[in-house]
Amino acid sequence: MAEIELGDMKVSGGKLLIVIPLLGTILGGMWAGFELYQRLLDAEEAIISYVSPDFSHYDESLAVLQTQVAELEKSINKLESDTEESMDEFKEDVRGAESLARSTDETVAETQRELRDDVYAMEEKLNEQIQRNVALNRRLAESVADVIFADVAEGLALSQKDKLASLAENVEFDSEETYREKLVTLRNSYFPANAGTQRDNSENISENTETSAQPAVSGLMESYLSTLTRVSKK
To answer: Would you say residue 137 lies in a domain?
Structure first.
């Protein structure tokens, strides 16, 4: 069997098969340790020679940004404050407008009530005035009718006047002229014997009436018409 002699040691073939791989392992480990050590040296050199980058411009930009953010926050706070003040003023304006509207509604309602009361009062006064005018017109017509009847019945006996007065009650007073004509027709129809005298007397009395009584009657009519005109204007 082959033997290898190393100094005083002799290694036979079987042992040699064991020693050779062991030596290879030891040498490989030593080489790996050397490589690791070399890398550590390279890393140390890189760390020693490392120069940190300049971040000063980033710091300046960050400071400017922080300043802008602060100013923006101030602007937002001021805007919120102004908005709250504007909203408060707007609410006050709305409340004032609502109060004014309520006051205006109350004033309008009160004015309408006063106007309605005034209209009712004017209607009552107008109705009273119309009633007085109607009564005055009736009395005036009765007075004129009495004057015309006395004129037409002139010269008749008392019984004939009563008869004519009874007939005249059914005669409607439209106007002085037509009423006189109707009474004259009744007298001539029921008392023809006194027709000629009545015509003469009527002419004489008419002349006297035109010169004396007629102005008074016209004055009453003029006053009545003036009153009616004033009432219609009101």
So the answer is: yes
Residue 222, pLDDT score: 60
Domain of residue 142, residue span: 124-233
pTM for the model stands at 0.34
Q: Which residues contact 206 (CB under 8 A, 6 or more apart)?
A: 151
What does pLDDT average to over the chain? 76
Instruction: Answer whether residue 151 is part of any domain.
Output: yes
Strand, coil or helix: what is 10?
strand
**pLDDT value of position 140:** 78
Cβ-Cβ contacts under 8 Å for 160 (sequence gap 6 or more): 153, 190, 191, 194
Q: Is the pLDDT of residue 147 over 60?
A: yes
**Domain count within the chain:** 1
Residue identified by tokens 């069997």 is: 1
Q: Is the pLDDT confidence value at 24 over 50? A: yes
Residue 111 has pLDDT above 80, yes or no: yes
CA dist 41 and 32 (Å) reads 14
> How many angstroms separate the CA atoms of 11 and 51, rounded?
57
Counting Cα atoms < 13 Å in the Cβ hemisphere of 14 gives 1
Three-class SS string for 58-100? HHHHHHHHHHHHHHHHHHHHHHHHHHHHHHHHHHHHHHHHHHH
Grouping H, G, I as helix, E, B as strand and the rest as coil, residue 54 is coil
For residue 45, being part of any structural domain is answered with no
